[in-house]
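User: For my dataset I need records formatted as: sequence, then structure tokens, nothing else. Please produce one.
Assistant:
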Amino acid sequence: MTTKILALTDALGNLVRFELLPGNRYDTVGVAPLIEGVRFGGLLADKAFDCNWIVDDLNERGALICISQRPQRKEPLDIDLELYKERHLIENFFGKLKEFKRIALRSDKKIAASAQ
């Protein structure tokens, strides 16, 4: 059994809120509860979050949309490619999360070898 983690971070990459989903669910299912009641000026996301209802919700909020788009989108959105580069902050967050998992489970070979 797998689990998906959707995370909302601030502009510095610090966790604001997260949602856990079963591994067999679409990522977009967890977006509504993730952004509900949260005020923000923009959303940077990958292709998994490129769907019309998310774009419409962000437009209603007046938030900047910076979502990498699927090739089949009929009307491509203009996104700020320089701003999109800042998405590495969320990737860094997930990298830290995986590192803490290795420490907690002692699955990293270097840590396991030094513990013995």
